[in-house]
């Protein structure tokens, strides 16, 4: 069988160009109310209990997508031998090429694999 993976399908980055951090207005108001020299208890009560102790500056989302095609080579070769006259049989090489095109044209490839899976018992497709 063959298995292909793609990691980190998309990445978006937003730079602030040295502008002020995009903080919530309510948070900024709370900071202003603390004054110039806040006590530890006022910081704990108004900031830490409500907002926590960390500020997230950036995040990355990613994922993994895989396509697995299980091939019964004996059934596939019998299918090829039985239909050599009309040359419409699916070969192992054709399946490899089709699987490689999955990440280029996902919908079309899945449709073709679905039709092959229905017409032949030689393959099983898992996403």
Structural description of this entry:
By secondary structure, the protein is α+β, with helices and mostly antiparallel strands. It folds into two domains: 21-62, no CATH class; 64-126, no CATH class. Helices cover 43% and strands 14% of the residues. It has helices at residues 25-34, 40-51, 73-82, 92-100, 106-119, and strands spanning 2-7, 64-71, 123-126. The protein is rod-shaped and about 85 Å long. Mean pLDDT is 76; it is low at 1-12.
Instruction: Give the overall average pLDDT.
Output: 76
Low-confidence runs (pLDDT<50, min 5 residues)? 1-12
Strand order of the largest sheet: 1-2-3
Helices and strands, in N-to-C order?
Answer: EHHEHHHE
Question: What is the SS-derived class?
Answer: alpha+beta
Number of strands: 3
- Helical fraction equals 40-55%
Rg estimate, integer Å: 28 Å
Sheet with the most strands, sense and barrel status: 3 strands, antiparallel
How many structural domains can be distinguished in the coordinates?
A: 2
Fraction in beta strands: 5-15%
Specify the number of helices.
5
Please give the alpha-carbon distance between the first and last residues. Answer: 13 Å
User: Looking at the structure, what is the overall shape?
Assistant: rod-shaped
């Amino acid at each position: 069988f063959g298995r292909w993976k793609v990691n980190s399908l998309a990445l978006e980055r937003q730079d602030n160009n040295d502008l002020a951090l995009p903080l919530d207005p309510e948070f900024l108001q709370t900071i202003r109310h603390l004054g110039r020299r806040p006590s530890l208890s006022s910081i704990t009560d108004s900031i830490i209990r409500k907002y926590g102790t960390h500020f997230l500056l950036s995040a990355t989302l990613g994922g993994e997508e895989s396509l697995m095609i299980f091939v019964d080579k004996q059934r596939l070769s019998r299918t090829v031998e039985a239909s050599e006259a009309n040359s419409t049989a699916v070969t192992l090489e054709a399946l490899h090429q089709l699987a490689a095109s999955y990440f280029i044209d996902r919908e079309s490839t899945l449709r073709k694999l679905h039709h092959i899976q229905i017409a032949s018992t030689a393959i099983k497709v898992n996403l």
